[in-house]
Design a protein that fits this description.
Blueprint (H helix, E strand, L loop, with lengths): L3 H11 L1 H7 L3 H9 L5 H8 L4 H18 L2 H17 L1 H13 L3 H13 L4 H9 L1 H7 L2 H10 L5 H8 L4 H12 L3 H13 L5 H7 L12 H11 L13 H12 L6 E6 L6 H8 L3 H7 L5 E7 L10 H15 L9 H15 L4 E7 L2 H6 L5 E6 L13 E5 L6 H12 L9 H9 L3 H13 L3 H21 L7 H5 L1 H12 L3 H9 L9 E2 H8 L3 H13 L4 E2 L13 E3 L2 H10 L2 H19 L12 H11 L3 H8 L2 H10 L2 H11 L5 H16 L1 H4 L5 H9 L6 H11 L7 E3 L9 E5 L6 E6 L5 E6 L4 E5 L5 E5 L6 E6 L5 E6 L3 E6 L5 E6 L4 E6 L5 E6 L3 E6 L5 E6 L33 E6 L5 E6 L4 E5 L4 E4 L7 E6 L5 E6 L3 E6 L5 E6 L4 E6 L5 E6 L4 E5 L4 E6 L6 E6 L5 E6 L4 E5 L14 E12 L2 E10 ...
Parallel strand pairs: 1-4, 1-5, 2-3, 3-4
Antiparallel strand pairs: 6-8, 7-8, 9-68, 10-37, 11-12, 12-13, 13-14, 15-16, 16-17, 17-18, 19-20, 20-21, 21-22, 23-24, 24-25, 25-26, 27-28, 28-29, 29-30, 31-32, 32-33, 33-34, 35-36, 36-37, 38-39, 39-40, 40-41, 42-43, 43-44, 44-45, 46-47, 47-48, 48-49, 50-51, 51-52, 52-53, 54-55, 55-56, 56-57, 58-59, ...
Length: 1416
C-alpha cells in the first residue's frame, strides 16, 4: 500500500485540471510564500503571469517538483486550501474533498475507476448517436423523455432547466444530445428506454438499438452498398471487370478481423496488378459493410507518390489531401493549418463522428506517409511496398499479397470482355498475349482496348509480334548497359502503352501526350483540361472518355457521370506519366508546360490572380511556370500580393511556401529582393495564412508593414481600389520589418527546447504536449514526429550525424529515436523527472540529469551506464558491466545536494567530448570529466541556472540564470570573463559560432543580441508573447531560432556585422490612457503610458507618436502604479505604489521656437493619500474632481484644482475593482466583488446599491459601464452573467441567460441610445442583447483568446472589440474588419470621436496607433 504522502500526491495529480480551471491563484500566492513553499523569486515570477489558469499551472508544477524532495509540501498546500476555503467559498472546500477522495487507497481507486468507466460512452453507442443525430434533432419530442431521464439521474435538475429553456425544439434536442455524449453508456441506454416508452417515438428508440442486432432495414441491398460507397468516394466498378473471387475473399476475411479493434490491412503487389480495383471490390459487400463497418461506412483517399523535385516527401501536398478528407468527414468543415494538427484532428473526427468506419488509403508509397495516417482507426492501404506499415504503431497489422496478378484463366476472361467475345471465341494469339502480359490487368486492359476497336486477326498477330519483340529487346539489355531504365522495369506495360498510342487518332494522340505536364498522383479536374486543351467541357469529357476507355487515364469520380454543375475528376497513372516523360524530349515537355501557362494567361487576360478557382490552377500553376523555364514570370508571381491572396484562399499556404523554397533560386536577379520580401511576409505570417484568410484580412495584414516594403505598397494599391471597406495603417510602426525567416505554431502548447541539425537544414523541437518534432528549417514542414512520452518533454538533442534523436521528459524517461525511421531505439529510466539531456559529439554517449540531482552518462546503443553521480558528490562506483556494486548505499533522494543546489536543470557536452557541465536550481554550475570527477565550479549565479553551452573550441562557457544575468566563463580556470545584466529573468542563451555575439531569451518574450567583447546590448527583438524557453544561432550564424511558451517557434535573420547598439524599441505597460486633440480637421491621439525600458511615464502625441512630451516629473523613489489623463488633455493624475498621488499639468508650448511641443509640470501632490498602493484613479467629466482607489479598501475624492480631500468612503469588506464617474461629475458608480454602489463624490453618501449580479463567493464583477445619458448601467461577471439596471430607480432592466457551459463575461458596453448591450467572453465570443426584449440578438466567435474589451461606436452602428486582435462588428453581428496584434492580447482599446483612430498596447509592450488609411 502506498504511503499517505504518495496517496496525497496522487490526489493532487488527479485534480490538476480541476485546480487549473477553478483556483484563483492571486489570493493564494502570499500564503504559499509565507509557508516557504515558494521562494520570493518564484512568487515574483508567478505574479508576472497574466492568465490565472497559467499561473495556477506553473504554481502546481513548482509544488510537484518540491514535493519530490519534501513530501510535506502536499500537506502544507492542502492546509492553505482549507484555510482559504473559509474565505474564498464552497468551491475550495469541494476541491479539498476531491483531493482527499482521490487520495484513498487502491481498492477505492479501483472502485472509482470502474464507476468512471461506466460514464464512458462505448463506441457503438457513440456511433449510433452520431449517425442519427440529424434525425433525432428534427423529430425528437424532448418534453416526452425529459421526466424519465431526470428521475433516472441521467439529467441533473439544472440541466433539465437548460434544455427546457431553449427556444426551439431542435435546439432543445441538440442540447440534450450534447449532454448524453457525457453520460456514458448508461445514459445512452436510459435514453433509448425512454424513447421506447414514449408513444410515437418508439421508432427513434429502435433506430438507436442497432447494436442490439436490429440493424438498418434496407430493402434494396445493392442501393445500400452503392450509397455507402458513393458517400465514401470509393471508385465505381470498372465497365470491364473480372471477378477475382479467391483474392477478394482473402481481403474480406482479413477485414473482418478489424470488427472490434483498430488495425491495418496492407494490400501489396506490383504496379498494374489491380490493387485499387480489388480494394474497391472487397468493400462492395452489404454484409461486410453492415457487420463490420456500420454505421461508419468507408472513406477512400487516393494518396499517391507525394515527392517533390528533390525526391523528398511533399508534405504540403500531403497536408492538402488530409485537409480535403477532413472537409468531407467533419460536419464543422474545419481545415487544420498544419500536418500535425491535421493528423490529430483527423483522429478526433473519425473517433467521434465516424467510429466503426474503414479508411482506405490507395497507392501509398512510403512508411513515412503511412505513419501520418496512424490515427487509431480501421485502415486498409494499397501499396507496392509490403513494409509500408512498418512504422505504424498498431498491434494489429494484416496483409494480403496480389503479387501473382491474374491467372491465365482470369486474363482470358478480362481480354474476352474487352473484345466483347466469349473465352472460347478468342483466337490462339490470346494465350501468347496473356503470357507476355505476365498477369498485369493494366497491360491486358490496354491491349484489350486496342483490339476492341480493331479485332481483325491481323491485328491480333501484330500485337503478339510486338510483345515478343519487346521481350527480345529486354533480353539484350540484360547484358548491355540499361539505356532506357523505364523500359527495362516495365517491358510489358511499355509495349502495351505503345500499342495503345498507335491506335489513337492524331488529334487524340496529341492530347494524350500533353498529359505529361501533370505531376504524379494529381487530380485533374475537367475545367482545368478545358483551359489547357482549349476545348469546351463536353469536348474534354468526350476525349477523356476515349482515353479512359483505352485505359490510358482513370475517372476519379465516385460516380460515373457529371452531376449538375460538378466537374469530373481524372487521374493519370504514374506508369503512364513515367512512360511519357521517358518518351518525349525535354524541350517538348518544356513547350507543353509553357502551353499550360499561356492558356491560363489568356484566360485571365494577364492577371493570374483573377482566375476562377478550378481546383488546379492555384495548386499547380507555379509548378508549370518553373518547368516551362518562365523565370521572369515566376519572379512576378512570387512577388505579387494579389497572387498570394488568391493562393492562400484557394490552396495551401504550406504549398506556397514550398514553392518559395524550391523555385526562389531560379528567379532572375531583378526580382530577388522583392521575392525575398514576400517570402518573409508569407513565412512570418504562416500562423494566419494557413487558416485560409479572406482577401481583406491578408491586405490588412500587409498594411501593418513598413511603408517602404513592396508588400505594403501593393497592399495600399489594393486597398485604394476597395473604398467600401475601412482600412488601417499602423501609424507608429517601426521603420524596418521584422525579418522572420519563419514563424510557426508546430506544437499544441509551449515549446520547451529546440536545436539545429549540424548543417542547419533541420530543427528539432519538443513541447509541453509531449511531442518531439523534426522539421525543415526553410519551410517548417515536419519531416518526423516522435510520440511516446507521457508528460512534458523538457529537452531534446539531434546527433551530429543527424541520424539519432534524443528526448527527455517529466515521465522519468530518456528516449533515443531513429531520426528517419521514427522508431524508438532505446528508453532509459530515471527515478524522477528528467530535465536535460545531450549527445556526446561522437554520439556514442548520452548525458542526462534529473530533478533529484542525479547525473548519468550512458551508452547510446545499449543504455549501459558508464558513470553516474550527484551534482556535487559521486555515487558508489559502477562495475565495468554497468551494474551497481553489491555494497552500494541505498539510492536516496537528498533534500539538497551537497553543493547547495536542487535539481539539475541543464547540462552540456563540451565539443571536444572530454568534459561535461551541469547546472542546478540554486545557481551552482560544475564541470566534470567523463568519470564524474569534479574539475571545478563556476561561482557567481545566485538563482536557478536555465541554460549552459560551450563555444565551439570548448574554451568558453555561457550560462543564463533567473538572477537576470548571463555570464561567459573561461573553462580552464572557471573565471567569469563577462556579465550581461538584464532587467528581467533570463531563460536561455546561446553563443554565435564565432563567439563574438550572444543572444538571450527572457520572461518578457524578448530576444536580445549582445556584443560579447564589450558586454554591449546591440538589439532587442520582442518576438514572442510569453517566456522564451530556448534560443539558438544557426550553424552559419545567419539566423536566430527561438521557441517560447506561446507555442510559437520563430527563425529570424541575425543582424549584420555592426557592433553599435540598435535603437531599442520602447516597451509599454498594457495600462495606458489616451485622449484625442482636434487639430487641422483631424483627431490626434495623446497617449499617457509607462515605458518599462526607461522606467518612465511618457506622453506621446500625434498618430506617429513623433512628438514625445518629456518624461513626467514623477516623485523621487516612488514606483508609478496608475495614471489617467483628463478628457480636455490639460491634467494628468498619477498614483504610486506607496500611496502618493500627484497632479501634473499638460499644456502646449507658447514659444514659437518650440511649436508643436508640450510641457508638463507638477500642480500638487499628496504624500499619503492611501495606505498602500493606489490602484485606480479617474477624472470627472468637467475635470473638477478626481477619485482614487487604494488597496486600503478606500475610495477618496479630491479637488482636481487644489488637491483638497472631498470625501472618503471605507468600510466595504472587499476591495473595489472598478469605478466610473457620471456625467454630472458628482456621482460615481463603484463595483465591488458582489454589488455596485452609486455614491456622491462630494459627501461620500451612498445613493443606491445595485445587487444580484454576483450570487456566490466564487464569482465577481469584471466590468461596468454607463449609457451615454447615465440612465442605465451595465455590468458583467465571472459567472458569464450580464445585467442592466436603471440608475434612476435601481430597477433591473435586463439579465442574460447563464448556462453551465458559460465562460466569464470579461467586458461589457451599452449602445449610445441604451437599447443594446454587448459583452465579450473568455471563449472569444461577442454577444449582443436587446435590453427591451431580453433576447440575445447575435453571438459571434472571434478568437480563442479572452475578449478583454468591447465598446460601441459614437453613432451606435458598430462595435469594436479587443482580444488577440482589434475587430469591428455591425450591431447585427456582421464581421467588418480585423487587425491582428503581434502580441497575444491587450488590456483595452480607445478610439477618437470620429471612430477613425484607435489606440491599444499588447502584452509584449507594443503601442498601436491605428489610423484610417487615406487614399488618393
Amino acid at each position: 500500500m502506498d504511503s499517505p504522502a504518495t496517496r496525497l500526491k496522487r490526489g493532487f495529480i488527479a485534480n490538476h485540471k480541476r485546480m487549473v480551471t477553478q483556483l484563483e491563484p492571486t489570493s493564494l500566492l502570499s500564503s504559499f510564500l509565507s509557508e516557504g513553499l515558494i521562494t520570493l523569486e518564484e512568487y515574483q515570477l508567478l505574479q508576472k503571469e497574466l492568465i490565472p489558469s497559467r499561473m495556477t499551472d506553473k504554481l502546481l508544477v513548482m509544488l510537484h517538483r518540491k514535493g519530490i524532495l519534501d513530501s510535506k509540501v502536499y500537506d502544507k498546500s492542502l492546509d492553505i486550501f482549507r484555510e482559504a476555503g473559509s474565505l474564498e467559498g464552497q468551491y475550495l472546500e469541494d476541491l479539498v474533498s476531491e483531493i482527499l477522495e482521490a487520495s484513498r487507497d487502491d481498492a477505492t481507486d479501483s472502485l472509482r475507476f470502474d464507476y468512471r468507466r461506466s460514464l464512458v460512452l462505448e463506441e457503438r453507442h457513440n456511433a449510433a448517436l452520431r449517425a442519427n443525430e440529424d434525425i433525432i434533432t428534427a423529430s425528437l419530442r424532448v418534453e416526452d423523455v425529459l421526466p424519465e431521464l431526470v428521475s433516472s439521474g441521467v439529467i441533473a435538475p439544472e440541466e433539465n432547466s437548460l434544455v427546457r429553456g431553449e427556444p426551439l425544439d431542435s435546439l432543445k434536442a441538440k442540447r440534450l444530445i450534447s449532454i448524453l455524449y457525457q453520460r456514458g453508456s448508461r445514459g445512452f441506454s436510459k435514453f433509448v428506454e425512454a424513447l421506447l416508452n414514449s408513444e410515437g417515438q418508439e421508432q427513434l428508440g429502435r433506430l438507436l438499438m442497432d447494436e442490439e442486432g436490429v440493424g438498418p432495414e434496407v430493402e434494396d441491398e445493392e442501393r445500400f452498398v452503392s450509397e455507402v460507397l458513393k458517400r465514401g468516394h470509393v471508385p465505381p466498378r470498372q465497365p470491364v471487370y473480372v471477378e477475382r473471387a479467391e483474392t477478394i475473399a482473402k481481403i474480406r476475411n482479413e477485414l473482418r478481423k478489424l470488427k472490434d479493434t483498430d488495425g491495418w490491412l496492407v494490400l501489396h503487389g506490383m504496379a498494374g496488378f489491380g490493387k485499387t480495383i480489388l480494394a474497391a471490390e472487397a468493400v462492395r459487400d452489404a454484409r461486410l459493410l453492415r457487420e463490420v463497418f456500420h454505421p461508419g461506412g468507408v472513406h477512400w483517399l487516393t494518396v499517391g507518390q507525394l515527392t517533390n523535385a528533390r525526391g523528398e516527401l511533399d508534405k504540403a501536398n500531403l497536408l492538402t489531401k488530409i485537409q480535403n478528407l477532413i472537409v468531407r468527414l467533419d460536419k464543422g468543415g474545419h481545415r487544420p493549418p498544419n500536418l500535425e494538427a491535421a493528423t490529430d484532428y483527423l483522429q478526433k473526427v473519425i473517433s467521434e463522428q465516424h467510429p466503426y468506419s474503414l479508411l482506405i488509403l490507395d497507392d501509398v508509397w512510403s512508411p513515412e506517409v503511412a505513419e501520418v495516417f496512424s490515427v487509431r482507426c480501421r485502415t486498409m492501404v494499397t501499396t507496392r511496398n509490403a513494409l509500408v506499415a512498418s512504422s505504424v504503431q498498431s498491434p494489429n497489422i494484416y496483409s494480403v499479397s496480389v503479387s501473382d496478378g491474374f491467372s491465365d484463366e482470369e486474363g482470358k476472361i478480362l481480354l474476352a470482355q474487352w473484345v466483347k467475345r466469349t473465352v472460347s471465341e478468342l483466337p490462339g494469339e490470346a494465350e501468347t498475349i496473356i503470357k507476355y502480359c505476365r498477369g498485369s490487368p493494366m497491360a491486358i486492359a490496354l491491349i484489350g482496348a486496342i483490339l476492341r476497336k480493331n479485332p481483325k486477326v491481323a491485328r491480333w498477330k501484330a500485337i503478339t509480334q510486338k510483345l515478343m519483340e519487346s521481350y527480345s529487346h529486354i533480353s539484350a539489355l540484360h547484358v548491355t548497359p540499361r539505356v532506357n531504365e523505364w523500359n527495362y522495369q516495365h517491358p510489358t506495360l511499355n509495349a502495351s502503352i505503345q500499342l495503345s498510342e498507335e491506335s489513337l487518332s492524331d488529334g487524340l494522340l496529341e492530347l494524350f501526350q500533353s498529359l505529361v505536364v501533370f505531376d504524379y498522383d494529381t487530380l485533374v479536374p475537367s475545367p482545368a483540361l478545358e483551359t489547357i486543351w482549349g476545348q469546351d467541357i463536353f469536348e474534354v469529357e468526350d476525349n477523356m472518355a476515349e482515353l479512359v476507355g483505352q485505359s490510358l487515364a482513370q475517372n476519379a469520380n465516385p460516380g460515373k457521370e457529371r452531376q449538375d454543375d460538378s466537374c469530373l475528376l481524372y487521374t493519370i497513372h504514374d506508369i503512364i506519366v513515367d512512360y511519357l516523360r521517358d518518351k518525349l524530349p525535354q524541350e517538348k515537355q518544356r513547350q507543353l508546360h509553357n502551353m499550360v501557362v499561356e492558356r491560363y494567361r489568356l484566360k485571365s487576360e494577364g492577371d493570374f490572380s483573377s482566375l476562377e478557382d478550378d481546383d488546379y490552377v492555384y495548386q499547380k500553376l507555379l509548378y508549370h511556370v518553373g518547368r516551362a523555364g518562365r523565370f521572369d514570370l515566376l519572379g512576378e508571381l512570387l512577388s505579387s500580393l494579389r497572387w498570394i491572396v488568391s493562393s492562400v484562399q484557394h490552396a495551401n499556404a504550406n504549398t506556397l511556401l514550398a514553392y518559395y523554397k524550391d523555385l526562389a533560386e531560379e528567379v532572375p536577379e531583378l526580382w530577388k529582393d522583392e521575392v525575398t520580401q514576400f517570402r518573409l511576409f508569407v513565412s512570418g505570417h504562416m500562423d494566419v495564412l494557413a487558416e485560409h484568410p479572406r482577401r481583406e484580412e491578408v491586405v490588412q495584414l500587409a498594411l501593418l508593414l513598413p511603408d517602404s516594403s513592396e508588400v505594403f505598397k501593393q497592399a495600399r494599391t489594393m486597398a485604394a481600389s476597395d473604398r467600401k471597406r475601412s482600412w488601417f495603417t499602423w501609424s507608429n510602426k517601426v521603420s524596418e520589418a521584422e525579418k522572420y525567416a519563419l514563424k510557426l505554431r508546430l506544437h499544441r502548447s509551449g515549446v520547451k527546447h529546440c536545436c539545429y541539425s549540424r548543417d542547419g537544414s533541420e530543427v528539432l523541437s519538443c513541447s509541453e504536449d509531449g511531442d518531439v518534432k523534426l522539421w525543415d528549417a526553410a519551410t517548417g514542414i515536419v519531416r518526423s514526429e516522435f510520440k511516446g512520452h507521457k508528460d512534458i518533454v523538457n529537452c531534446c538533442d539531434l546527433s551530429s550525424s543527424g541520424k539519432l534523436v534524443l528526448s527527455c521528459s517529466e515521465d522519468y524517461t530518456v528516449k533515443v529515436w531513429a531520426a528517419r525511421k521514427k522508431t524508438l531505439l532505446l528508453s532509459f529510466k530515471h527515478k524522477s523527472g528528467v530535465q536535460c539531456c545531450a549527445f556526446s559529439p561522437d554520439e556514442t554517449l548520452v548525458l542526462s540529469a534529473d530533478i533529484d540531482t542525479h547525473i548519468y552518462l550512458w551508452e547510446t546503443k545499449t543504455g549501459k551506464v558508464r558513470s553516474r553521480w550527484l551534482h556535487g558528490v559521486p555515487l558508489s562506483p559502477v562495475t565495468p558491466e554497468g551494474k551497481e556494486s553489491e555494497n552500494e548505499r541505498p539510492f536516496l533522494v537528498p533534500v539538497r545536494s551537497p553543493s547547495g543546489g536542487w535539481g539539475v536543470m541543464c547540462c552540456a557536452f563540451a565539443p571536444d567530448g572530454k568534459q561535461v557541465v551541469t547546472a542546478a536550481q540554486a545557481g551552482s554550475v560544475r564541470l566534470w570529466d567523463l568519470e564524474g570527477n569534479a574539475m571545478h565550479s563556476f561561482d557567481g549565479h545566485h538563482a536557478e541556472v536555465k541554460s549552459v553551452s560551450f563555444s565551439r573550441d570548448s574554451k568558453l562557457l555561457l550560462t543564463s540564470s533567473l538572477d537576470e544575468t548571463a555570464r561567459v566563463w573561461d573553462v580552464p580556470s572557471g573565471k567569469c570573463l563577462k556579465t550581461f545584466k538584464q532587467s528581467c529573468q533570463i531563460l536561455s542563451a546561446a553563443l554565435s559560432p564565432d563567439a563574438s555575439r550572444l543572444i538571450t531569451g527572457d520572461v518578457h518574450g524578448s530576444v536580445k543580441v549582445w556584443f560579447v567583447e564589450r558586454a554591449l546590448l546591440l538589439q532587442e527583438l520582442p518576438v514572442h508573447n510569453d517566456f522564451v524557453n530556448c534560443v539558438r544561432y544557426s550553424p552559419n550564424g545567419r539566423n536566430i531560432l527561438s521557441a517560447a511558451d506561446d507555442g510559437i517557434v520563430k527563425i529570424l535573420s541575425a543582424e549584420a556585422d555592426t557592433v553599435e547598439p540598435a535603437p531599442s524599441r520602447a516597451s509599454y505597460r498594457r495600462r495606458f490612457w489616451s485622449t484625442f486633440v482636434r487639430e487641422e480637421d483631424a483627431y490626434h491621439p495623446l497617449v499617457l503610458c509607462f515605458d518599462d525600458r526607461e522606467g518612465k511615464l511618457k506622453v506621446l502625441y500625434r498618430k506617429d507618436a513623433a512628438v514625445v512630451v518629456p518624461a513626467a516629473p514623477t516623485l523621487p523613489s516612488a514606483a508609478v502604479r496608475t495614471w489617467v489623463v483628463s478628457e480636455d488633455s490639460t491634467r494628468v493624475l498619477v498614483g504610486y505604489c506607496r500611496g502618493q498621488i500627484q497632479m501634473l499639468s499638460l499644456e502646449r508650448c507658447t514659444d514659437v521656437r518650440r511649436a508643436g511641443e508640450w510641457n508638463m509640470g507638477e500642480v500638487w501632490s499628496v504624500s499619503q493619500a492611501h495606505e498602500g498602493k493606489v490602484l485606480k484613479c479617474y477624472f470627472s467629466a468637467d475635470v473638477s474632481m478626481v477619485v482614487t482607489c487604494g488597496d486600503d479598501r478606500k475610495h477618496k475624492t479630491w479637488s482636481a484644482k487644489e488637491g483638497h480631500p472631498l470625501a472618503s468612503v471605507d468600510g466595504w469588506d472587499i476591495g473595489v475593482r472598478l469605478c466610473v464617474f457620471f456625467q454630472d461629475s458628482i456621482r460615481l458608480a463603484s463595483a465591488h466583488e458582489r454589488n455596485i454602489t452609486i455614491w456622491s463624490g462630494r459627501t461620500g453618501e451612498t445613493k443606491r446599491t445595485l445587487e444580484g449580479i454576483v450570487q456566490s463567493n466564487k464569482h465577481s464583477i469584471l466590468s461596468i459601464n454607463l449609457s451615454q445619458d447615465d440612465s442605465r448601467l451595465v455590468a458583467s461577471a465571472t459567472s458569464g452573467l450580464v445585467m442592466v439596471w436603471s440608475t434612476v430607480n435601481g430597477a433591473q432592466l435586463f439579465q442574460s441567460k447563464v448556462t453551465a457551459f458559460m465562460e466569464c463575461a470579461r467586458s461589457s458596453a451599452l449602445s449610445p441610445d441604451g437599447t443594446l448591450a454587448a459583452a465579450g467572453y473568455d471563449d472569444g465570443s461577442l454577444r449582443i442583447f436587446n435590453i427591451s426584449t431580453g433576447v440575445e440578438v447575435h453571438q459571434r466567435n472571434s478568437s480563442s483568446y479572452w475578449m478583454v474589451d468591447v465598446a460601441f461606436s459614437p453613432d451606435g452602428r458598430e462595435i469594436v472589440t479587443l482580444c488577440d486582435s482589434i475587430q469591428w462588428w455591425g450591431t447585427d453581428g456582421s464581421h467588418l474588419k480585423t487587425v491582428l496584434l503581434k502580441g497575444t492580447f491587450g488590456k483595452f482599446v480607445q478610439f477618437s470621436p470620429d471612430f477613425k483612430t484607435f489606440v491599444t498596447i499588447d502584452n509584449a509592450g507594443r503601442l498601436y496607433l491605428l489610423s484610417s488609411l487615406q487614399v488618393d
